[in-house]
Every structure is written in C-alpha cells, then in structure tokens.
Amino acid sequence: MTHDEIIKALFDETLVGNAPAVLELTNRGIADGMTPGAILFDALIPALEEVGARFERGDFFVPEMLISGKAMSGALNVLRPLLAETGAETVGTFLMGTVKGDVHDIGKNLVNIMLEGAGFEVIDLGVQVPPEKFVAAIIEHKPDIVGMSAFLTTTMPMFKVNIHEITKAGLRDQVIIMVGGAPVTQEYADVVGADGFAADASTAVRIAKDLITKKRATVSA
C-alpha cells in the first residue's frame, strides 16, 4: 500500500470503528516510514471529525461514536510514545471532567482524544465530578486549563458552582477555565465566568492553544 492508501484506509476504518484494522494500519504505516503526526492529523483526527459531523446530522448515534473513539484510542496508544520521541513538546496540561449530576462523556472523550493528539497531557476526572474534586485535582496536578462538560441544561448551572468553589479556594488566577457541551453557548460561558467555550472538539483544541499562548505571553510580559 502507498502512504496515501494507508491514510485513506485508516480514515475509513476509523470511521466505522474497526479497531483491529486501525491498529494494524497504524503499525504498518509506522513500519513503512510514515510519521506519527501524518497518521494522526491526516487520517485519525479527520475521521473523528467526520464522525462528529455525522452525529450532528443524525446519521450516526452514540454507539457509532463510541466504537470510532475506541478504535482511535488503540492507535493513539501506539502513536503517543512515538510522538514524544519525535520531540513533540507537551503543549500544556488539561484537566477535564463532566460536571456533577451529568453522566454524559462522549463529547468529553472526543475532546480528550483530540487534545492528546495535539500534544496536551490530559487528566480525565470522568463524569459526575463534584466541585471539591475539581478543586483537589487543580491543587494536585496544577493544570494549565480546566475543562468542564455538561450535556444537560439542568446540569449547566454546575459551571458557576464549580468556578465559585475554585475562586473561593484561591485558585482561579492559576487556571484557564473552558466549558462545553451540547446545550452550552458562548453567551452562557460568558455569564458563568469561563475563559473559553468551544462547540466542537477541533475548535476546543484551537481555543485551548490560543488561551495558553495568551496567558504565557501575559505572564512573561
């Protein structure tokens, strides 16, 4: 197979969630001299973006998203150490969690995969994360960014509660806070006092990088 054929096959097999084929093609590509970055950015991430687009259109449902994400995770296990070897610096540390009262994690997991692929170290607190757990994790891990996800309108108010507790603990100035989830808007993010909002995984990565760059520039100024 040519490199272009491997890229196309990786895209197609990730799209349908064929984990064994994705793993085999990833290993074949690496053995054939392809860079881990090319595999990630030319095949895997575009495939997951297409999965997200199909989900939004109603062509894909939660199970399809799950198996595609799982297929990509297997490839990432191969690529992660190789990306580190090539000197791909860690962009920053991203602490992620779905807020208390909410058990949805598809979007969060998709963002995590994209962030890892973009060079972030991701610490995932899981779902139903109470404010005190966010606070304790900030103290322990000292992340650059804290990401909070909510899928339900009824759990969105937890953003404000979490930010209040982080502020009360004296940690607000130490972290960038990003929020997201299906019902969340930029206007709502502004109201609760978040630093950033993204409607999809690829935008989340871009905004996270921009916010870190701005913060570091301010600190060094």
TrEMBL record:
It comes from Candidatus Planktophila vernalis. One of its GO terms (cellular component) is cytosol. Transmembrane segments: none annotated. It comes from the Bacteria. Gene3D superfamilies: Cobalamin-binding domain (3.40.50.280), Methionine synthase domain (1.10.1240.10). Belongs to the methylamine corrinoid protein family. This is 5-methyltetrahydrofolate--homocysteine methyltransferase. SUPFAM superfamilies: Cobalamin (vitamin B12)-binding domain, Methionine synthase domain.
